[in-house]
Design a protein that fits this description.
The protein is of the alpha/beta class. The protein contains seven helices and ten strands.
Length: 236
């Protein structure tokens, strides 16, 4: 299995404070990797470094064979932030049409991604009238327009009801099955079982890199949350 991402010795300094401390990992093509850890542990900083928008970066970050942030990666990497990245005074379809033109993507992709995120019936609705969960799905739809090879998702299921969470995870699995590499951050440990592999973070360091079943065997814990607590306590 090929690696889509290779990170070696990643250090991030922000405001004179080191927030990531020599992180090393790879991401395999066609897999869903969960990035788990408490709020403030460095998950978002790590994701920003992968997509090339984080300052104060030292170390080596290679994405799809190129340096993170390279112009060649703009259409090959999708990034969904926690904050909405769409325009409230435009409809869903208008937002997607605008981003399709910016990316140089044909308009037929708009209908396709609306179907993927279950918003096909709401295309004409203004974004400012949507619920938080619907806005999050519009942001995801914009990231899917260019059919990315790497999709980086920062807390994509926050505020969603259980049915929508289930449906989004089914979409993530279908994307991975089609060859896309996904990195999904969360502080909700019960989502971990949906991932092929887990990176557990604590205080700017990776404290574990394993499959969900491997973590349970390694720690003897009954669930991933228990495994994380056991590993965090051992690393303290």
């Amino acid at each position: 299995m090929m690696n889509s991402v290779e990170v070696t010795g990643l250090v991030v300094v922000r405001g004179g404070h080191e927030v990531l401390h020599g992180v090393d990992f790879t991401l395999s093509s066609g897999q869903i990797t969960g990035l788990l850890g408490p709020s403030g542990c460095g998950k978002t900083t790590l994701m920003r470094a992968l997509v090339g928008v984080q300052g104060g970066v030292r170390g080596r970050v290679t994405v799809l064979g190129d340096a993170a942030g390279s112009a060649s990666l703009r259409r090959r990497v999708g990034y969904v932030t926690q904050a909405p990245a769409v325009y409230g005074d435009l409809s869903i379809a208008e937002n997607l049409g605008y981003f399709a033109s910016v990316m140089g993507v044909t308009r037929d992709r708009v209908g396709a991604v609306l179907e993927q995120v279950a918003l096909a019936d709401l295309g004409g609705q203004l974004v400012r009238t949507l619920s938080g969960g619907q806005v999050a799905r519009v942001s995801l739809a914009t990231a899917l327009l260019a059919t990315p090879e790497l999709l980086v998702l920062d807390e994509p299921t926050v505020g969603l009801d259980p049915v929508l969470r289930r449906d989004l995870w089914a979409l993530f699995r279908s994307l991975a099955d089609a060859g896309c590499t996904l990195l999904v951050s969360s502080h909700v440990m019960d989502e971990a079982v949906r991932c092929d592999r887990l990176l557990l973070m604590r205080e700017g360091r990776l404290v574990a890199d394993d499959s969900p079943s491997g973590l349970l065997r390694r720690t003897g814990a009954r669930d991933v949350e228990g495994a994380f607590l056991a590993i965090a306590e051992a690393a303290a």
